[in-house]
């Protein structure tokens, strides 16, 4: 890695002792000696193992659940179903007033995705829990499922989630989050070329080497200590408090040393049910996702579809951009309504475009609920935007890098979501890339600056 | 058979934080009796090095070496609130909270030192090595060790501080979408060079040249860790990864690291990282969040390079050999 | 439940425990003996985080039953430092900033150690091959490869 | 019920124990211990055998016998088995190769079982207490097989006649998109006089590419002359679709990779 200090040297604070120094990481000696304590490195006598009975169907009504054989299985201490969960229908962003509550901790009457948690089995050993889980009998009536976002948005599509009433998240702005800036149709009217293209991704897993999980130990005083690898301590504690209808003062979360997260450990899934198990049995409980669960049950990055329509002039200026983004939330909201609107603010990209129209939809389908991941709401949008930029440049016969200089945002430029640009540095990144990659651009672009339009 | 070469470019920006729900983090700092500094937080280290960076930020602000700072984080019985580690917010939000707390603690520390040295606190400075000196008269000094002892046992002062950083909630305007979902933006431009086997659709990423603008590299080696690993993940996203390979068909989802594809140690592109620093107005020492954006520009850069190599557009991620083969066949069929 | 005796040498000290028949070595080490340096990243044999050295060979402790290890010499990363002095590989991982979350690190170090035990001056290709069963999600592998190459150089200089 | 391991000193005794319901044979553990870890509760008992002959490698003249417990690592480092080393090294990473056995590989479902693809090209004989069966027969009936495999025998190929290719997305240790093993005898003028081609991932278990084998006879290994063989390489295949690749893709690239292997 090279630090190019020549850029922005005038605004950088110098004379610092610790900042800017490549100090050794204080946690690394623990890592290389195997001494770092992750949540699962805590072991308690009498600890129970929690295994989840999961839905084998994408969408089904639950006619009945029979746990009697499982409860009799040797080593089984407790079997939990929806009725055991004090506040079973929840949604994590309720903490920031983004509702409705739309997800069950344990399925109640219906499953909406293959892999959904239905019954939790707590046993003396993992093996006993697995064997007992196999003895839980759930009678399902399979329902039609919908996997394709466009199909889901059509009238008559199977309804994924009754708490929403339709297969999209209803924002205060309606069926989508909207950004309106300038007059996009007028922009298309003046454009030399119009290019409309569609981009698609599929779900992506965080795949941290440490799977999601927690170990819960009763403290003996009605308090429970939860050793967890959550990415957000109080967010998880507060949601657990709501789900369990327990005062937050009864909960003690310990974490902060996580074997990789990448956004995959911001859902509140394992902790509430494990705490409930510890409360109802009085025993320590561990609930750790298997690798298969991490891969297919834990929330992935949402699949997205992005349709971009651009109006471009022969001189390279983009004069109008219309983006319709679809985020595949899967069966439940989790963080997806947030991600979709984060995308709405991002979609114009790092470019100054006078006429912008953005609609972003959060769509429900019968698949594993998606959630946050590194680059949440932006990563797939950037793929679409930057491939589109390449196509536009080629369409008008311009060098793709020069085309980006023409449109690059600079300090003071108004973004479509009506924030003035501050601290821009796109131009300088491109100038340095031009040099580093031996991709020459015209001198006028190398003379540009993010500071002002004039330079 | 032909191995065809191409290159592609992409440029991106990336927001720091998530203000659409309000974005707070708090920190507490206090001195031990011998002048070590305890930072208490509830922020989570996912491996990106949050603990180390908070230690350096506290050390810089107090004016002591980093090894005099201890990080106690992610115990909800002791640590004040943090929204969480996501949205590139950790360094930025928690760092600001630590600075505020450390400044308050530093002020008390200087006041105690001033009493010991019988000067005004405003006349004092730290040398970064654990001493407090009178400006312009460095021979007149006291160690922070002694200042802390004095505060604890003689002067009855608590060398401590509280830090709070909150970006107030932004509510998107319904009709126009006017909103402030984040604060400062990081930037990047990546040029990728690929080889595509036009008989099998296999893509080899030869080089990626990444230029990242991240505000301030608080610890350059740790920044490098993030950026190198992120660049790898970006390539991985471009060419390999998905839990649903036949999306929207729900079948054949991988369940292990053999089936969930990521580049192995034998697939590494020659990776170049160049870092620019345009300090952000509101970041700790100008820092922005580099952790997420570093994995984004490689995806379109690789996609554009594939097009440059073989003349077909793959607008669906991941860009698998199968998608390339299908596109090449469609192209050949005219 | 039938308990079976297991007895082996772990990092030079004798260990004897009774475990449930069918218990994996990974569980025996972590839950019975208390050596948590091998990590359970998949329990499928696909991530390498649980790698240990058994009688000089790299093995996955998650797929090895403890009772098949009677009499074996087992080495884990927690036993690598001697009298508090880090092994050159551990030193090299620190110096190369080759750890981020650290979860894969003990397994990586085991895989690298077996390589260096048999190959004094490995090529980059040999290092890549040696690490190929171990997943890292943070680093992009390059710093780890560099750390192993550096440790190999340090080893061979010491030997010279 | 817990998982219990029974250890026997003879294959005969182990075979008896293996007749009990819920019992499976433990080789290197890469398949059965994984299944148990993943919650396969249909297995409650594991059987293993410590008989030394199972771990023996015997090469005499060309005749080779590998005990069923011989590991991939042992094959890869055995000086007389150099021709097979690429196939042995195709299996897993270093730790897996120290565990995975010849016997286990015979049962590994696609996309695993690369070494068995090599064995199929060699027309190996699979040995059990019940007798000996050609590998192709064994593979066809492996799902119902109850007798412990004790070893595998074959004629060691001359290095120049045997070729092996594993195509993987992830390097150096990905699982197979497909694997190919070829054993070709050629006349002095270079024309192929006999050909055996085995394929991995082109069905749920290793299979022979009979049509391509026939088409290669009498050909020299030039792009032109092998073209007819490549054109029929996919005959009779029924490739798996999995997260690595679709059946369509596997069929699409099989002739490409076979061609490259033959021309290498």
From TrEMBL, chain A:
Gene3D superfamilies: Aldehyde oxidase/xanthine dehydrogenase, a/b hammerhead (3.90.1170.50), Aldehyde oxidase/xanthine dehydrogenase, molybdopterin binding domain (3.30.365.10). SMART domains: Ald_Xan_dh_C. The keyword Secreted does not apply. It comes from the Bacteria. The keyword Transmembrane helix does not apply. Keywords: Molybdenum, Oxidoreductase. Residues 33-144 form the Aldehyde oxidase/xanthine dehydrogenase a/b hammerhead domain. Pfam families: Ald_Xan_dh_C, MoCoBD_1. GO terms for molecular function: iron ion binding; oxidoreductase activity. This is Xanthine dehydrogenase family protein molybdopterin-binding subunit. It comes from Mesorhizobium waimense.
UniProtKB/TrEMBL annotation, chain B:
This is Xanthine dehydrogenase family protein molybdopterin-binding subunit. It comes from Mesorhizobium waimense. GO terms for molecular function: oxidoreductase activity. Residues 3-267 form the Aldehyde oxidase/xanthine dehydrogenase second molybdopterin binding domain. PANTHER family: ALDEHYDE DEHYDROGENASE. InterPro entries: AldOxase/xan_DH_MoCoBD2, AldOxase/xan_DH_Mopterin-bd_sf, N-heterocyclic_Hydroxylase.
Automatic annotation (TrEMBL), chain C:
One of its GO terms (molecular function) is 2 iron, 2 sulfur cluster binding. InterPro entries: 2Fe-2S-bd (IPR002888), 2Fe-2S-bd_dom_sf (IPR036884), 2Fe-2S_ferredoxin-like_sf (IPR036010), 2Fe-2S_ferredoxin-type (IPR001041), 2Fe2S_fd_BS (IPR006058), Beta-grasp_dom_sf (IPR012675), Diverse_Oxidoreductases (IPR051452). The keyword Heme does not apply. This is (2Fe-2S)-binding protein. Residues 4-80 form the 2Fe-2S ferredoxin-type domain. It comes from the Bacteria. Keywords: 2Fe-2S, Iron, Iron-sulfur, Metal-binding, Oxidoreductase. The keyword Metal-binding applies. Signal peptide: none annotated.
From TrEMBL, chain D:
Gene3D superfamilies: 3.30.465.10, CO dehydrogenase flavoprotein, C-terminal domain. InterPro entries: CO_DH_flav_C, CO_DH_flav_C_dom_sf, Diverse_Substr_Oxidored, FAD-bd_PCMH, FAD-bd_PCMH-like_sf, FAD-bd_PCMH_sub2, Mopterin_DH_FAD-bd. Keywords: FAD, Flavoprotein, Oxidoreductase. GO terms for molecular function: FAD binding; oxidoreductase activity. Residues 1-159 form the FAD-binding PCMH-type domain. PROSITE patterns: FAD_PCMH. It comes from the Bacteria. PANTHER family: XANTHINE DEHYDROGENASE SUBUNIT C-RELATED (PTHR42659:SF2). This is Xanthine dehydrogenase family protein subunit M.
């Amino acid at each position: 890695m090279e630090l190019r200090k020549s850029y922005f040297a005038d605004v950088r604070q110098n004379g610092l002792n610790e900042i800017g120094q490549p100090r050794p990481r204080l946690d690394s000696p623990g890592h290389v000696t195997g001494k770092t304590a992750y949540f699962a490195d805590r072991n308690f006598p009498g600890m129970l193992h929690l295994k989840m009975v999961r839905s084998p169907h994408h969408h089904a009504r639950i006619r009945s659940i029979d746990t009697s054989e499982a409860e009799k299985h040797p080593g089984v201490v407790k079997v939990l179903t929806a009725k055991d969960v004090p506040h079973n229908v929840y949604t994590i962003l309720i903490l920031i007033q983004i509702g409705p509550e739309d997800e069950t901790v344990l399925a109640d009457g219906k499953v909406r995705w293959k892999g959904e948690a239905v019954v939790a089995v707590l046993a003396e050993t993992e093996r006993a829990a697995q064997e007992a889980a196999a003895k839980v009998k759930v009678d399902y009536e399979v329902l039609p499922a919908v996997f394709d976002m466009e199909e889901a948005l059509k009238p008559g599509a199977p309804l994924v989630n009754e708490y929403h009433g339709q297969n999209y998240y209803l924002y205060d702005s309606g069926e989508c989050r909207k950004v309106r800036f300038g007059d996009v149709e007028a922009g298309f009217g003046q454009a030399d070329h119009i290019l409309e293209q569609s981009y698609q991704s599929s779900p992506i897993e965080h795949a941290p080497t440490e799977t999601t999980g927690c170990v819960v130990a009763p403290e003996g005083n009605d308090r429970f200590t939860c050793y967890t690898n959550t990415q957000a301590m109080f967010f998880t504690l507060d949601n657990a408090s709501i789900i369990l209808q327990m005062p937050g003062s009864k909960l003690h979360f310990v974490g902060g040393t996580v074997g990789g997260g990448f956004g995959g450990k911001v859902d509140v899934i394992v902790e509430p049910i494990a705490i409930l198990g510890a409360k109802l049995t009085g025993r320590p409980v561990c609930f750790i996702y298997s690798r298969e669960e991490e891969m297919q049950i834990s929330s992935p990055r949402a699949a997205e579809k992005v349709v971009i329509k651009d109006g471009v002039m022969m001189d390279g200026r983009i004069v109008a951009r219309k983006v319709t983004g679809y985020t595949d939330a899967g069966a439940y909201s989790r963080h997806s309504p947030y991600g979709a609107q984060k995308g709405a603010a991002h979609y114009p990209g790092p470019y100054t475009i006078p006429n912008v129209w953005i609609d972003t939809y959060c769509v429900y389908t019968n698949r594993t609920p998606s959630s946050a991941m590194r680059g949440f709401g932006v990563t797939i949008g950037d793929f679409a935007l930057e491939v589109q930029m390449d196509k536009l440049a080629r369409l008008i016969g311009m060098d793709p890098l020069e085309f980006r200089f023409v449109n690059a945002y600079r300090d003071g430029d108004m973004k479509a979501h009506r924030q003035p640009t501050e601290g821009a540095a796109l131009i300088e990144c491109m100038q340095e890339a031009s040099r580093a990659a031996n991709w020459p651009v015209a001198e006028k672009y190398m003379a540009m600056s993010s500071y002002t339009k004039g330079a | 058979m032909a191995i065809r070469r191409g290159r592609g470019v992409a440029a991106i920006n990336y927001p720091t934080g998530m203000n659409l729900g309000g974005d707070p983090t708090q920190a507490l700092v206090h001195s031990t009796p011998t002048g070590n500094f305890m930072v208490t937080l509830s922020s989570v280290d996912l491996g990106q090095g949050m603990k180390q960076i908070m230690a350096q930020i506290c050390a810089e602000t107090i004016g002591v070496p980093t090894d005099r700072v201890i990080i106690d984080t992610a115990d909800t019985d002791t640590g004040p609130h943090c929204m969480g580690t996501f949205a590139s917010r950790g360094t930025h939000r928690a760092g600001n909270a630590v600075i505020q707390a450390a400044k308050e603690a530093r002020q008390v520390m200087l006041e105690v030192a001033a009493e010991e040295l019988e000067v005004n606190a405003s006349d004092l400075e730290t040398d970064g090595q654990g001493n407090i000196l009178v400006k312009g008269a460095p021979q007149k000094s006291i160690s922070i060790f002694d200042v802390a002892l004095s505060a604890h046992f003689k002067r009855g002062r608590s060398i401590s501080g509280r830090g709070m950083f909150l970006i107030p909630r932004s509510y998107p305007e319904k009709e126009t979408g006017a909103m402030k979902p984040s604060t400062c933006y990081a930037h990047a431009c990546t040029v990728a060079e690929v080889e595509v086997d036009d008989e099998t659709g296999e893509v080899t990423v030869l080089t990626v040249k990444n230029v990242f603008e991240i505000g301030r590299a608080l610890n350059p080696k740790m920044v490098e860790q993030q950026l190198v690993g992120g660049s790898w993940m970006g390539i991985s996203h471009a060419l390999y990864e998905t839990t649903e390979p036949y999306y929207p068909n729900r079948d054949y989802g991988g369940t292990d690291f053999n089936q969930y594809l990521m580049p192995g140690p034998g697939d590494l592109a020659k990776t170049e990282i160049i870092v620019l620093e345009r300090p952000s107005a509101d970041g700790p020492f100008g820092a922005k969040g580099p952790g997420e954006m570093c994995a984004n520009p490689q995806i379109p850069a690789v996609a554009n390079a594939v097009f440059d190599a073989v003349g077909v557009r793959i607008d669906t991620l991941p860009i698998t050999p199968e998608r390339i083969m299908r596109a090449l066949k469609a192209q050949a069929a005219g | 439940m039938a308990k079976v005796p297991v007895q082996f040498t772990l990092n030079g000290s004798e260990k004897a425990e009774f475990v449930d028949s069918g218990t994996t070595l990974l569980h025996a080490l972590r839950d019975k003996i208390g050596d948590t340096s091998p990590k359970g990243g998949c329990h499928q044999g696909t991530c390498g985080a649980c790698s240990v050295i058994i009688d000089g060979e790299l093995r996955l402790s998650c797929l090895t039953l403890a009772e098949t290890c009677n009499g074996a010499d087992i080495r884990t990363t927690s036993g690598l430092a001697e009298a508090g002095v880090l092994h050159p590989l551990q030193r090299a991982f620190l110096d190369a900033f080759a750890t981020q979350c650290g979860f894969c690190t003990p397994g990586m170090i085991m895989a690298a150690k077996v390589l260096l035990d048999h190959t004094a001056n490995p090529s980059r290709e040999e290092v890549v091959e040696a690490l190929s069963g171990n997943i890292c999600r943070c680093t992009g592998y390059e710093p780890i490869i560099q750390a192993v190459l550096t440790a190999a150089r340090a080893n061979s200089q010491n030997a010279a | 019920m817990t998982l219990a391991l029974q250890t026997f000193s003879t294959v005969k005794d182990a075979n008896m124990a293996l007749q009990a319901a819920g019992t499976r044979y433990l080789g290197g553990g890469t398949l059965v211990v994984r299944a148990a870890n993943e919650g396969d509760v249909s297995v409650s008992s594991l059987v293993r055998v410590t008989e030394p002959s199972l771990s023996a490698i015997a090469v005499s003249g060309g005749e080779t016998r590998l005990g069923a417990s011989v590991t991939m690592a042992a094959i890869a480092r055995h000086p007389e088995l150099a021709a097979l080393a690429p196939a042995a090294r195709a299996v897993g990473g270093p730790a897996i190769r120290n565990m995975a056995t010849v016997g286990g590989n015979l049962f590994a479902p696609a996309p695993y079982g690369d070494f068995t693809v090599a064995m199929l090209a060699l027309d190996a004989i699979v040995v059990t207490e019940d007798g000996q069966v050609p590998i192709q027969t064994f593979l066809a009936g492996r799902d119902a097989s109850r007798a412990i495999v004790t070893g595998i025998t074959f004629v060691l190929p001359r290095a120049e006649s045997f070729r092996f290719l594993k195509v993987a997305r992830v390097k150096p240790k990905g699982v197979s998109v497909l694997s190919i093993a070829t054993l070709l005898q050629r006349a002095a003028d270079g024309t192929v006089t006999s050909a055996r081609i085995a394929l991995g991932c082109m069905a749920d278990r290793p299979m022979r590419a009979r049509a391509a084998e026939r088409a290669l006879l009498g050909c020299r290994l030039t792009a032109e002359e092998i073209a007819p063989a490549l054109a029929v390489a996919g005959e009779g295949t029924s490739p798996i679709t999995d997260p690595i690749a679709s059946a369509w893709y596997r069929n699409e690239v099989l002739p490409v990779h076979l061609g490259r292997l033959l021309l290498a």
